[in-house]
Inverse folding.
């Protein structure tokens, strides 16, 4: 049988064509070895025309955040290592679609800030905060103020907050410092005083309307003390409207001032007189004797 197949001059089979890439591949030549080695890196699909016709990523992210914010509100206690470890498996970079690494950058009290970094393009993408930042400069974590307010509502202070956050109980970060705690306490006191004055002013107007008189209303009085017994150094007197049953006015009587008590040295002489002249406008002591006397 006649063989119609032509034999090749070399007598060998032709070599297969090597894949030279396409428009989605990028050539890079490395000169580490003697022979130049060609590597192919896949380009981002963001360069294609079809991708550019899709809605922008910012639009998609904004819509997702809007949907999430409607379903998830308030605070949660989570295991940060477990949660972030699982989250890293499902998130990717918006530019190169590489893996995202989430690291804790800093912490302020019970609040933390996290940094999202792409393992492929090595660029810092975004800084995330674990809670809302409030204040005029948007630099105060809200959770720190809430924690201090929670302790004040149950009659406790910074020591109880430290005990609550210890590793053996709740394993939370160390709460705010003493300086920050005092600053938050002052802010809470100012806000409470403003709200109390507004509430008592509205109650007084309501009492005048219900009583039907112009300058004379019937009230009842009540009092309480900071500690049990009639030897407390701080007492509170309240006036209650007879018709509306709401507090119309309060007066705090104190026979103790912490700043005066902390003065070191004899409480007489020119040095003490200078101290009193500066401290007198801010002194908390406005009564002598037991609060029961009032």
């Amino acid at each position: 049988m006649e063989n119609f197949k032509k034999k090749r001059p070399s007598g060998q089979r032709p070599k297969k064509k090597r894949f030279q890439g396409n428009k989605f591949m990028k050539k890079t030549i490395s000169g580490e070895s003697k022979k130049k080695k060609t590597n192919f890196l896949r380009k981002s699909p963001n360069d294609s025309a079809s991708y550019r016709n899709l809605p922008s990523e910012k639009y998609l992210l904004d819509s997702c955040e809007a949907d999430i914010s409607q379903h998830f509100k308030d605070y949660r206690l989570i295991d940060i290592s477990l949660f972030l470890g699982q989250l890293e498996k499902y998130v990717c970079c918006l530019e190169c679609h590489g893996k995202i690494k989430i690291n804790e950058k800093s912490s302020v009290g019970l609040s933390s800030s996290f940094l999202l970094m792409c393992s492929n393009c090595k660029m810092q993408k975004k800084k995330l905060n674990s809670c809302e930042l409030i204040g005029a400069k948007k630099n105060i974590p809200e959770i720190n103020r809430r924690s201090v307010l929670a302790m004040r509502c149950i009659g406790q202070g910074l020591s109880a907050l430290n005990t609550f956050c210890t590793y053996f109980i709740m394993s939370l970060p160390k709460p705010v410092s003493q300086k920050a705690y005092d600053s938050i306490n002052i802010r809470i006191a100012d806000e409470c005083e403003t709200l109390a004055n507004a509430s008592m002013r509205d109650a007084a107007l309501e009492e005048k309307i219900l009583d039907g008189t112009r300058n004379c209303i019937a009230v009842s009085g009540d009092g309480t003390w900071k500690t049990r017994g009639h030897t407390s150094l701080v007492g509170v007197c309240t006036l209650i409207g007879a018709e509306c049953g709401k507090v119309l006015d309060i007066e705090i009587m104190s026979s103790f001032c912490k700043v005066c008590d902390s003065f070191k040295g004899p409480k007489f002489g020119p040095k003490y007189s200078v101290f009193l002249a500066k401290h007198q406008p801010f002194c908390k002591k406005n009564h002598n004797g037991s609060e029961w006397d009032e």
Observations:
- The chain has eight helices and ten strands.
- The longest strand covers residues 100-108.
- The chain has a mean pLDDT of 79.
